[in-house]
Input
Amino acid sequence: MARQLFMVLSEAVEGREDEYNEWYENTHLDEVIGTSAVVSAQRFELAAEKGAAAPNRYLAVYEVEVDDPGEVFPSIEAKGEERNNSDAINRETIGAWVWTPIGPKHGG
Output
């Protein structure tokens, strides 16, 4: 199986930053790993910008084991109703992309 990257840029609903971060880090990531082909996940916060502005402050990077990149979204969406969703995430500004490797990993 190939390892795809599923990347999500998101932000909190205004005034609910702490609730959003608590849910994303301590509930959402593990639930996605437990109910999909995701094998690992890590969150990042924007530290610096140069060039085009980032649309959102937070990035989640998921490693997904599937043969076909087209399987990533269906895998993640398949059991979404089984997860504890939060209305602290701003669903109007969220963006998600699947990235497939085009070459080998370099370095460590």
User: Anything to note?
Assistant: The first helix runs from residue 17 to 34. The first strand starts at residue 2 and ends at 10. The CA atoms of residues 38 and 64 lie 4 Å apart.
